[in-house]
Structures are given as C-alpha cells and as structure tokens.
Write a structure and sequence with these properties.
single chain, five-stranded antiparallel sheet, 17 strands
Length: 798
C-alpha cells in the first residue's frame, strides 16, 4: 500500500481517468453563474412585462373620476347633480385641517414623508403588529399604494395586482409632490355610508364641514379606510370607538398630540349626527334632466355607457334661484284664482346662446314633464313679432297702415280680443296694442313663405302651418325656441342656438366636447333695430307694461291663446332674453291675463340685472319710409276677401257685450265694463304711465275674478300633459247681408272693401281649429253683397 501511495498522481490518473464533471468546482461555479444570469434575465423580462401593463403617465391621479359617475356643474363650478359614486366636495390640501391629515398618516402610513412609495419597514412592522393583535390593526400598504389602487386597479387580492400597485406607487412618487398625493387620497378614499373623501364623510357622519371637526371626530374618520363597514359608528359603535382610540394613541406616539390631549379625546363619548351624502342632493332639477337628455348628442355611446364624466354647464345659480322664486310666487299668488296650475321660465344669453336659468314647472318631483322644452303650445300674439319682422325686412314702413275693421278672408274671420276696431292703424300701433286683424292683413301682404322662413332663421324649429291664423299664433311652439328666437332681435339679427353645456370631460380629465358657438345672421341689423323699437313701445305704452324695469329699456311682447289657455310674455334687454309661460297641462282655459306673465318676467329680471351694467339698444335707423327690403314679399292671393260694414271704428259687437271673461281688456274708455271686471287691463297705455317712478304705483296687479257666466261648456280633463286643439265656440246667428262698403282711401295701402278674384292655383290651407271656417259658397256676382261669414273666436286673444 505504501508503495502504491508512492506512485505519482499523474501515473494514477493515466490509468483511472479524470474525476466526473459534477465533481469539478468550475462546474458548480458555472451552474451558479448561469442560474444567476437566467434569473436576472427572467426577472428583467418579467419586470418589462409588468411595466408594459402599467399606464405610461401618472397624470390621471390628479384628474381621476370613478366610472359610473356623472357630475353636472353650474357655470361657477357649483355641483348641481351627481350620479354614481362621486366625490361631492373636493378640498385643496390647505383646506384640510393638519390634525386630520396627521390622523390618517398616523394610522395608515407613519413614514409617508420619508419613503418613495414603498415602506419596507412598515410592511414588516404591520405584519408583526397584526400578528400580535390577532387582528388587522395596521395596514401594510402606503398611502401612495392605496391611491394607485383607487385610480388604476381593482380590489382583487392577487400577487400580480399587488406588484402592479407597488410599481405604480413608485412612479407616482417620482412624478408628484407629497402634498398632491395626500390631497388626492383624502378626496378619493371611500369612508363608508356612501361618503367618498373626508369632506363628504364629515357631512355624512357629523353633519359639519371638516374645519369644524373635533379631534375625536377626526380620529373616527381616520379609523375607517381598512374596513369602512366594520368600523362605521352607524353599525357598531363600540368597535368604532375602540378603533378611534387606536388612532389617537398612534397620534400621541408620533408626537402629533400630547398624552393629555389623547386621554381627553379617548374619554369623549362617540357621538354622530347623520346626514345623507351631498351627492344625492339635486339642484335645478328641470335643467339637469334636460342636460342628461342632451348628452347623447355630444358624447359617443361607448363613453356615455362607462360614464365617469364631468359636465360643465351654462347655468347661473343665482339667476336660477331667482327664476324658481319668481315661478313659485306667481303660482302661489295668482294661480288659484286665475285658474292656472303651471308656470315655466327660461333665460338665455342671446350673444352666445347659453341657457342661464330654466324652470320647467311647479314641482319636478311630482312631474318631470319640462314645460320649457317639451310642451308644445300656441304662442298667441307673441308670434306677431315674426309677421312684422318679415314685413319690416321686406321694406314695409312701421307706419304702413291697414284698416282695423271686421274682415273676412276665404271664410276665415279674425277677431280682436276686445271686439273693438280702431280704424286705420299702423303696424307699429297694431303691435303695441295687439290688434289681430292688422296682423292677418300684414301676413297676407308679405306671404306665408317669407314669414315661415324668417321665423325659422330666427330660431323656431317646430312646424309652422301656412294658415291665415298663423299670424295670431295658431301653430304650436315650445318656450325654449320662442325665447331663443326673440333673442335674435337682441343681438341685432344674429341667431345663436340655445344650449346648456359648455364642456364635457371624461374620467381622465380630457375634454371630449367643447361648446361651439355658431352665429348665423337671420335678419339685417336695421330690421332688428326697428323691431326692437316697436317692441319697446309694447312695454312702455302697450300690453307689456308690467315688464318695465327701473333702470333700463325693455323690449317684449305679451301673448294669450284662445280662451286664455296660454299666457305668455317674452322680453329682452341686450344681454338677456327671458320667456315666461303660464297655463294648465290639460289645456283647460284659465281666468288669467298675460299681464301676469309679464309680472313674473319682471320679478325674475329685477334680480338678474341687479349687478348687470345697463346697456342701450342700437339706434333705430332714421329712414323708415321708402327703405329697400332685404327679402322679397310673396303676397297671398286669397280667393275672396271683404270688409264687413262698420258704423264706427270703435264698434263693439253684441258678442262682446255678452262676454263675461274676467281677463277681458278694459280701460278708461270702457267704463260700462269696469264695474264687472276686477282684473288688470291688458292694454296699459291709457291706464298707466311709462315712467319708472309712476309705474311702481300704477303697475297692474291682477285681482280675484268675479263669478263667471255659465255659457262656457264644462271642459274635458286629460290625464297627461297635452295640447289638444282649442274648444270651438258655437257659431253666432247669421246676420243679414251687409250692403257694399265704400271704397278705402287710395293713399294708404289696405285690402279692398270687397274683391272677387280669380281663385289662386293652390287654395290656402284650412284655418286651424281656433277659427271656424264658413261653409263653402259660390262667389257672388260683382254687384251683389258678400255672404256673411261664420263667426269664430280668434286664435289669439291678445
């Protein structure tokens, strides 16, 4: 053996061979290096894959909005309505009390100021604390990790989600300041009972703002994030109080409060004062409902389905409150005895089309039917504005006159509301005093097509029927379009579509819609200025006297449909146009007057213009006669027209003497009727002064109506808001055929007294239900007297 041992190792290796490779040191070193390299490669690939699944930017943290939410804001940023799990009150970091911030940091992330998104010491400390307490008394996630989870991830308990959360927290720390991170966390964290963020939680649990919270109350809120339901004082007061005390001791340990302060706070009983989340409150309900109906026009269906939107609207909250107060006061003061149950008001900035106030009815929660946008009603005399605007645009003078006398055209006989006739009357005076017959004669001279075209250019979207009673407002429109169309006159003939949305932001804060204000010229500036001058006269000397404002000029027009079913006033100043409607959803007649609508308008506008600089309307052009028109009139060629004999230009018919409607016009000349009426006059020129000081003493105030006669048929009540055709009155007895009337003066343009013409190629459409058409008869020979028409009530009574 000793000899064998003495054999050289090289000789031995030549016989036995080298050792196995797995026994070699280099083998194992190589394996180790390969493993490390492979692991590094695998880790690198895994990390790269993880990075690819993360958002590239952290900007969403500052703009994040939860899915399934819609927040509707007023023009000043006030929240009008929230749908879904949204934070109502977002606070800036300096608006949050220091001790409230310290309470959350103490219990959720003690090293918040020192780490870079991940707190490894905190993770180990939380694990030991929870193990010793046999409960979750401390979380391992930092505030930054929790914020990343809220904004980017769900609540799934998986390793993949946790790794993504940790990496995203690091990225957030790299891009944002600590104050930004803490601010967003405290505004987004869910704290139970429907409260998102500390401001909402302070209201839900204690009915107070965060600035009024006590130290124990702050600790109660800070205790909620790990398990809002379990730690809620509404569910288990003892558990909530114990958890609160843990927060207080942690604040003491971290040096935020003294031992004495902690002891005093712990000794304080846990008291709450519950309130509903503010996000469930709703303001301007008719307007916000309108906004929701408009959203599909501006937002793609897939985006709208996910929601997570902020809608910035045009509404002025102060004006909205004034509008709601004016409508409520009108219904309470006048509704009962004037027999109307509903009122609506809309105000628009005519320069940009922005809707500034909208009240669609008396009570939204009783009925969501919006009478500003959904109710189609006859506009009455407010439509005369479009007839006269067309005439002025065609070159007619405001002093163009027509005879106001009993008149029949193709069997249709318009009536003045007062049943009186003024003789030869200019279109300016006819508008001021709302003379129906002159409006119809003007329509015949300018034609249906030009009137319809001008009305549509000015903003009317509803169908306008080409009938003679179109001049008196027989075609139905809604309050929004009618008000917007009047705004065209306020802006010197330029129309802007009315709208309620300024901007829409998605859940990342990206603007996906911005209002696009498109101004279109509807009429020339001179026509608009002349019409404004004429409509100012309506307010200072005519039927719109109740709308006068103290410190500025107003232009506008009253309107009343058949049997006072609809009471209107549409008026404007250069900066604001406002429309008011009063009536009943079932179309029942009222006992009211359009002067009440003018009062409502005045009450709202007095508040709206309080801090608004007074602006003058543009000057009226000096040349009124002989102007060249900007459009071409297309006169109607009726089959048959004639003027009935009238003994005086102030004739009162027997039907007028039988009228007992309390809304009838009366003035100083009609003393025989003054004892049977207690309402304010519709015509204000003879009963009031146009001056501001005297107006306050003489302004018409409608009074309770006297008992009405039984001649009116019992109306049929409909169950749903609708606008059926007005009820027809029974035809009057057929009077004797009148003798041919004398010829009209040639110097003034007016329809001939009696004219038989060749029938037009296309017969005019029939008059609407508001005016009954006579049975067709053959036209008489030239010398024979014309047949008497069937008497019909006017489509427009004012």
């Amino acid at each position: 053996m000793n000899g064998i041992k003495g054999i050289p190792s090289t000789l031995v290796k030549s016989f036995v061979g080298p050792p196995p490779i797995y026994r070699r040191r280099k083998f194992w070193v190589g394996i180790g290096m390969a493993g490390i390299s492979g692991g590094a490669i695998a880790f690198g690939l895994g990390w790269q894959a993880l990075e690819e699944t993360l958002p590239e930017s952290t900007e969403d943290v500052l703009t994040y909005i939860r899915d399934e939410t819609i927040t509707v804001k007023a023009a000043d940023g006030t929240i009008l309505q929230q749908i879904g799990p949204a934070t109502h009150d977002n606070l800036k970091i300096w608006e949050i009390p220091d001790r409230l911030k310290q309470a959350f940091i103490s219990i959720e992330d003690q090293r918040f100021e020192n780490h870079s998104g991940l707190d490894y010491q905190g993770i180990i400390r939380a694990a030991f604390s929870n193990l010793l307490a046999r409960d979750v008394v401390e979380g391992g996630s930092t505030i930054t990790q929790q914020l990343a989870r809220i904004v980017y991830f769900d609540q799934q308990q998986t390793l993949g989600r946790k790794l993504k959360e940790m990496r995203m927290a690091q990225k957030i720390e790299q891009d944002l300041e600590k104050d930004q991170i803490l601010e967003r966390y405290l505004n987004l964290v869910y704290l139970g009972s429907g409260a998102y963020g500390v401001a909402d939680a302070a209201w839900v649990y204690f009915s107070k703002p965060v600035t009024e919270l006590t130290l124990p109350e702050m600790a109660t809120l800070a205790a909620l994030p790990p398990a809002p339901s379990e730690y809620s004082p509404f569910i288990n007061r003892k558990i909530a109080q114990d958890r609160r005390n843990v927060v207080l001791r942690r604040m003491q340990k971290n040096g935020y409060i003294t031992e004495g302060e902690a002891d005093a706070a712990i000794a304080t009983p846990l008291r709450t004062k519950r309130s509903n989340p503010k996000r469930l409150d709703r303001q301007a309900s008719y307007f916000t409902e309108y906004i929701q109906q408009e959203l599909p026009k501006y937002v793609p269906a897939d985006v709208l389905g996910k929601k997570g939107l902020i809608v910035e609207t045009t509404l002025n909250p102060q004006w909205q409150m004034a509008a709601e107060a004016a409508v409520a006061e009108t219904i309470e003061t006048y509704g009962k005895y004037q027999r109307f149950e509903q009122a609506a008001l809309v105000a628009i900035d005519p320069r940009n089309g922005q809707i500034k106030a909208m009240v669609g009815g008396k009570e939204f929660f009783d009925q969501q039917f919006n009478r500003v946008t959904q109710a189609q009603r006859q506009p009455g005399s407010t439509f005369k504005t479009f007839v006269y605007t067309t005439a002025i645009a065609a070159g007619f003078s405001p002093y163009q006159s027509y005879e106001d006398a009993p008149f029949v055209v193709d069997g249709y006989e318009p009536k003045n509301y007062s049943e009186k006739f003024r003789g030869w009357t200019s279109i300016r005076d006819a508008l001021t005093h709302s003379v129906n017959i002159v409006a119809v004669k003007t329509l015949i001279k300018v034609g249906w097509d030009p009137v319809v075209e001008i009305a549509e250019k000015m903003g009317i979207k509803s169908t306008l029927n080409k009938t003679y009673s179109l001049a008196l407002g027989a075609s139905e429109v809604n309050l929004l379009e009618l008000t917007s169309a009047y705004g065209t006159l306020a802006t010197q003939g330029v129309h802007v579509q009315p709208h309620g949305i300024r901007r829409i932001l998605d859940r990342q804060g990206k603007v996906i819609y911005r209002e696009q204000i498109q101004r279109e010229r509807a009429i020339d500036e001179d026509t608009a200025a002349i019409m404004t001058w004429m409509l100012r006269n309506v307010v200072t000397s005519g039927t719109g006297g109740n709308a006068q404002l103290r410190d500025r000029a107003v232009a506008g027009k009253t309107g009343t449909s058949d049997e006072a079913r609809d009471l209107w006033f549409i008026g404007y100043i250069p900066q604001l146009v406002t429309g008011v409607w009063l009536g009943n959803d079932d179309n029942q007649p009222t006992w009211g007057a359009s002067s009440t609508a003018a009062i409502t308008w005045h009450e709202f506008m007095e508040e709206a213009v309080e801090n608004m600089r007074a602006e003058d309307f543009p000057d009226r052009p000096d040349k009124l006669d002989g102007r060249e028109g900007t459009i071409e009139a297309k006169p109607i060629e009726p089959k048959k027209t004639y003027t009935k004999k009238s003994n005086t230009t102030n004739q009162t018919s027997s039907r007028s003497r039988r009228r007992s409607r309390s809304t009838s016009t009366y003035n100083s000349r009609s003393t025989s009727r003054s004892t049977s009426r207690s309402y304010s006059p519709r015509r204000s020129s003879s009963s009031r002064s146009s001056g501001g000081s005297s107006r306050s003493n003489t302004r018409s105030q409608p009074q309770p109506a006297p008992a009405r006669s039984s001649r009116r048929q019992a109306p049929v009540r409909n169950t749903a808001p609708s606008n059926p055709p007005p009820r027809r009155s029974a035809p009057a007895p057929k009077p004797a055929s009148p003798a041919p009337a004398p010829a009209q003066p040639a110097a003034v343009s007016a329809p001939p007294v009696e004219r038989n013409t060749v029938p037009a190629p296309v017969a005019p459409p029939p008059a609407p239900p508001a005016s009954r058409k006579a049975a067709p008869e053959p036209a008489p020979a030239a010398p024979a007297p014309a047949p008497a028409p069937v008497t019909a009530p006017p489509a427009s009574e004012e």
